[in-house]
Amino acid sequence: MHETERPAVSPPLGKLSPEAFQRLVAPHLGASRPEVAVGPRAGHDAAVVRIGAGRVMAVTTDPLSYIGALGLERSARMACHLVASDLWTTGIPPAYVSVDFNLPPGFSDDEFGCYWKAMSDAWSELGVAVITGHTGRYEGLGGTLLGAATLLGVGDEGRYISPSMARVGDRVIVTKGCAIETAAVAAWLAPERLRQHVDEDGLAWLRALERQVSVVADCRTALRAGVHERGVTALHDATEGGVLGGLLELAKACSHDVRVDRARLPLALEVAAACRMLEVDPYWSLSEGTLIVCATADRAALVLNELQEEGIAAAEVGEVLAGHGRLWVAEPDGGVTTHDTPLPDPYWPAYGRAVREGWR
User: Fold this and answer.
1) Structural domains present in the chain
2) Alpha carbon distance 27, 34 (integer Å)
3) Cα(134)–Cα(302) distance, rounded to whole angstroms?
4) Alpha-carbon span 260 to 283, nearest angstrom
5) pLDDT tens, position by position, 265-312
6) What are the CA-CA distances from residue 12 to residues 28, 45, 250, 346 (Å)?
7) Nearest Cα to 354, choosing from 190, 182, 197?
8) Mean pLDDT lowest for which of 5-19, 28-42, 108-122, 304-318?
9) Is the model's pTM score more than 0.90?
């Protein structure tokens, strides 16, 4: 090896960093069409396209995965809710889905049939019709990803929202808490190991979190308070990168600063214990199931009340400030940390290690 050469470094697992997205994806988006109201942007969970007569179409795409610890049926339901959660953050309900399966050769017909039946049941519960797709097996495929789904919904143009619409002075609300998906998967992946960190009731509670790895109900409920100046200005799904990563994405999307108090960010003791087991930071770790809501100052209390009435835990954690897209975190010791770029999500390497080492 020449002195100037460097060994190849693998890119981090998970979604592209904002820097990589801006460098590799954003400059190359095909044709420019005026009806695209919200296109591919960092911090946005879905696109919005004007289709005429005051109507818009919301669209999003997400992977479909099989997580062995959850089993076929739970994995299928979770996959549907992950993509539906992204679409609901536009304020437009999902209605149609196109599904693409690229299955590994060893994925049997019986396994696929079980997965697909559970997925169909979940689509039905979500009010979504399957309208087209593709299914096949191919060499070279393996791991947890089985394909992808593209979800669509249609609604009134005046009802859609996006993270770019958050405004200075808006209050920031977070539902459920940090690291929801991380903790739920950990409880199914390694229950025996987790028993060293929580009691039986705590383990049962963590395993039940699997049903909360979704923000569909959170979005529906928050939107009852109204949108734009009448209530909710922006919704964002805290997925990869966790709650702090999601808050930073929101700041980038609206081009304002976001300031939160770490002590107000909900973090259940059981979730913290699961994250200690995995050796991950719960504030930056995968947290599908956590919804970030921006609401006007005079309607934030109503949003919180609507969520409480529906039995969805939520807390006001900060506000949107004038700035240029940074996250400010007030720490319990009185200091303030600032973030301009997200930290890598620690979930993926931790999950991979647990699988390789056969945690139980």
Assistant:
1) 33-159 (3.30.1330.10), 163-356 (3.90.650.10)
2) 17
3) 44
4) 12
5) 999 999 999 999 999 999 999 999 999 999 999 999 999 999 999 999
6) 22, 21, 22, 10
7) 190
8) 5-19
9) yes
